[in-house]
């Protein structure tokens, strides 16, 4: 997911609006700045946590059986 930055005032929007909510300018450019990397690391953490939970469930199942 990309962000959009106003060409006039530099305001960054999460989605592509028809015009800037800050100054009303209509030209916005794709913005690849901060936030994207942090979100990636959040996903890595969630996947790692899921794998850990599944692994512990399997371990418990194997111990019980
Ligand atoms: Zn603007």
Poorly predicted runs of 5 or more residues: none
Number of β-strand runs: 3
Structural class: alpha+beta
Q: Work out the count of structural domains.
A: 2
- SSE run: EEEH
Distance between the termini: 45 Å
Q: Which percent band covers the strand fraction?
A: 15-25%
The major pleated sheet works out as: 3 strands, antiparallel
Overall 3D shape: rod-shaped
Radius of gyration: 21 Å
Strand order of the largest sheet: 2-1-3
Count of alpha and pi helical runs:
1
Mean pLDDT: 88
Please tell me about this protein's structure.
The chain has one helix at 36-64; strands spanning 3-6, 12-13, 28-31. The protein is of the alpha+beta class. It folds into two domains: 1-33; 34-65. A three-stranded antiparallel sheet has the order 2-1-3, with no helix packed on it. The chain is rod-shaped. Residues 6, 8-9, 11, 20, 22-23, 25 line the site of zinc ion.
């Amino acid at each position: 997911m990309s962000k959009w930055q106003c060409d006039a005032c530099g305001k960054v929007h999460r989605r592509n609006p028809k015009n800037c909510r800050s100054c009303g300018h209509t030209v916005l450019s794709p913005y690849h700045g901060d936030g994207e990397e942090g979100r990636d690391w959040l996903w890595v953490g969630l996947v790692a946590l899921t794998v850990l939970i599944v692994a512990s469930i399997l371990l418990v199942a194997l111990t019980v059986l």
